[in-house]
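Minimal example, chain plus iron/sulfur cluster.
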Amino acid sequence: MDVIIAKHAGVCFGVKRAIDLAFTAARNYRNHVYTIGPLIHNPQVVKQLREAGVIVKEGIEDIAEGTVIFRSHGVPRHLAEKAREKGLQIVDATCPFVKRAHGFARFLSRKGYLVIVVGDQSHPEVKSLKSYVEGEAMVVSSPGELADWAGRRKVGVVAQTTQSLEKFREIVAICLEKAREVRVYNTICDATALRQREALDLAHKVDCIIVIGGHKSANTKRLAEICRRILGDTYHVERVEELNSSWFSGKGRIGVVGGASTPGWVIEEVVKGLRRMVSQGS
Ligand code: SF4
């Protein structure tokens, strides 16, 4: 049996940068180091950070002193202002690509466009992105949500960096029908798009695909969604213990992809477990 691992499986530039900044802060700062919510949507990394001294808090009101790390998804503007008011030391690990999207959202709103954010309303990145809109914003997670929308004269569109290009295109197409002027910034990150293309490609070539990453990770869930459309035998696992030998019975080729927040060592562990399981079954 062949196990084919996607070339770009695992952490992207922005997540790696955030993890490195957090470990450096834990090593170098003598005061307490906090994140508001988990730094990334990967429980194994969050555990390692906790062991290194990085404490997860629910909100800025729970932090009275010390250092706060802004996570790779970014934080809402009011929260960043609050951290400054409180005199906290700030380590800004917001991914530069997320910041770029903030800039476009603000620019569009300043120019009088209704800003449509293609993304999930409850995702931290979307909350932070929306906070940079200085006028009206609408978050749209699927084209169907615009079915009864009356439209607007000037519409600007940006996306959560982990959205699928296909969905983004469909929503832009509806905006073109319903608005006289549409300005689009494709803020989908290359790392995401690349992993999605590879996953799609792999799903066509294998009999079963394992998608590795946090169950709360939006980009990993999206990879699983994309693969599942092509291949019913798609399984999303967070850790090696979740593998099930029955998934591989009678399969000739197994594909492995990893989300942009999945560290290499987690992928290695799952692949080792997978090979072990397959060899025991044969
Ligand atoms: S997926 Fe892209 S935008 Fe998101 S953290 Fe990684 S590099 Fe940054």
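The pocket of iron/sulfur cluster is lined by residues 12-15, 72, 95, 97-98, 161-162, 189, 191-192, 219, 260 (CB under 6 Å). The chain has a mean pLDDT of 94.
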